[in-house]
Design brief:
Layout (H helix, E strand, L loop, with lengths): L3 E10 L2 E2 L1 H10 L5 E2 L11 E2 L13 E2 L2 E2 L2 H16 L20 E6 L5 H9 L14 H9 L5 E4 L5 H14 L5 E8 L3 H9 L23 E9 H7 L6 E10 L12 H13 L4 H7 L2 E5 L6 H14 L9 H4 L6 H15 L1 E2 L21 E2 L4 E7 L4 E8 L4
Parallel strand pairs: 7-8, 7-9, 12-15
Antiparallel strand pairs: 1-2, 1-10, 1-11, 3-4, 5-6, 9-10, 11-16, 13-14, 15-16
Helix pairs in contact: 2-4, 5-12, 8-10
């Protein structure tokens, strides 16, 4: 079966525009949320890790006569960078030069939790200048597919905070099944007054910052942005002479707790199942990876909520003991439907550079969370990285990224 390679990366995050800014921010390890600039955010903790306005690239405010919200513009910015980084161009008839790609063999799989919710929330309150104009709530994939000229599958996955992990897995399946040669995959999330208010009412927002696995954690803090990866079959990448390969998506495992609408199942049985399946598909098996040192790092879901962190920690301690963790959420907050994509982006950069950056300090670690959170930068050991993403409804996904073969 053909390998699924990562040949392009793009990002727009609270750390700035571009993957270089993201990588520098990972090493600086010094971030904090800010108060959202929304006069109608009447809630206890109106905090979020926001994309700096100065770093949002200029882009279209509408496409095909429909307005684009903040989420779509984020996705388009990250996709443009990822496509350029992969050495591709928009398909014939659109901007750029003829890429030589068959548009029927190019797919898009993007994800979001709230979509272009800013347009709809603005209409409800009369804030939006486009008040009265209809727009689809989840247009990310069609926006990016329309810009690129992709005529393969264009799908937007929206199963809460596991969504972009699922989108990447869907993209890999499209390539492995022979449906596509190239897939633009990832996720985007933007500030939503509704989402932040709901989590405030749930008592699930930390009043200070996102502090996964910390003894004083009090919930999560959201972040916004977009992370996009170009997935490509090894055969296609080799034939066109792809200039950079960041790694390969070697395995994926899905499961569902079928337990509770919002809480994870306390034993962690199903998240362990997803991890084991991802590691098995990667070709090594969970025991062999852990014992041989083949698994170099884990990027956990770890949101900072009390039960989630404990359950995931127990499974990781049993399945991948002593493996170092890198917490993306401590760096940029919980990016909702884009969280899995940001974790995959981080994993791809770690594999490419061969370095595991330092974790953002979160204070004293919870003794019930017996996982390794290194405070300093270190050379990566092992050839694989495990990425976890979980969601409301018990949706779980684990992905394994590996070093690319020569």
């Amino acid at each position: 079966m053909d390998d699924v390679l990562v040949t392009g990366l793009g990002a727009l995050s609270p750390l700035g525009a571009g993957t270089d800014a993201f990588w520098r921010g990972m090493h600086k390890a010094d971030t904090a949320p800010t108060r959202v600039p929304d006069p109608l955010a009447h809630m206890d903790h109106p905090l979020m890790y926001l994309v700096p306005e100065a770093d949002i690239p200029d882009g279209p405010e509408e496409q095909d006569g429909l307005p684009l919200g903040r989420g779509s513009r984020f996705a388009l910015a990250a996709a443009r960078e990822a496509v350029a980084d992969a050495g591709l161009a928009a398909l014939p008839g659109l901007e750029g030069t003829d890429s030589g790609l068959d548009p029927r063999r190019v797919a898009v799989a993007l994800s979001t939790g709230m979509g272009d919710t800013d347009l709809h929330e603005g209409w409800w309150t009369g804030e939006a200048p486009a008040s009265g104009r209809w727009a689809p709530p989840f247009p990310l994939a069609s926006v990016v597919g329309g810009w690129f000229g992709a005529e393969g599958v264009n799908t937007c996955v929206s199963n809460a905070c596991a969504a972009s992990g699922y989108a990447l897995s869907v993209g890999a399946d499209l390539i492995r099944s022979g449906e596509a040669d190239v897939v633009i995959a990832g996720g985007a999330e933007a500030y939503s007054r509704t989402a932040l208010a709901c989590f405030n009412r749930l008592g699930a927002i930390d009043p200070e910052r996102c502090r996964p696995f910390a003894v004083e954690r009090r919930g999560t803090v959201f972040g916004e942005g977009s992370a996009v990866l170009v997935l490509e079959s090894a055969t296609h990448a080799r034939a066109r002479g792809a200039r950079t390969v960041y790694g390969r998506l070697a395995g994926a495992g899905w499961s569902c707790d079928a337990y509770h609408a919002t809480a994870p199942e306390p034993s962690g049985e199903q998240i362990e199942r997803a991890m084991r399946e991802a590691l098995r598909e990667a070709g090594a098996g969970s025991g062999a990876v852990a014992e041989s040192g083949g698994l170099g790092f884990v990027i956990p879901h770890g949101t900072g909520t009390e039960l989630n962190d404990v359950v995931e920690s127990r499974v990781l301690d049993a399945l991948t003991p002593r493996t170092p963790l890198y917490s993306v959420k401590a760096l940029i907050g919980h990016t909702g439907g884009a969280a899995g994509a940001f974790a995959a982006l981080a994993a791809s950069l770690v594999l490419h550079h061969g370095t595991l950056p330092p974790n953002v300090p979160v204070g004293e670690q919870d003794p019930e969370c017996a996982v390794r959170l290194p405070s300093g930068s270190a050379p990566m050991t092992g050839a694989y990285g495990l990425v976890n993403a979980y969601a409301f409804g018990g949706n779980n996904i684990s992905l394994v990224f590996g070093e690319a073969a020569a």
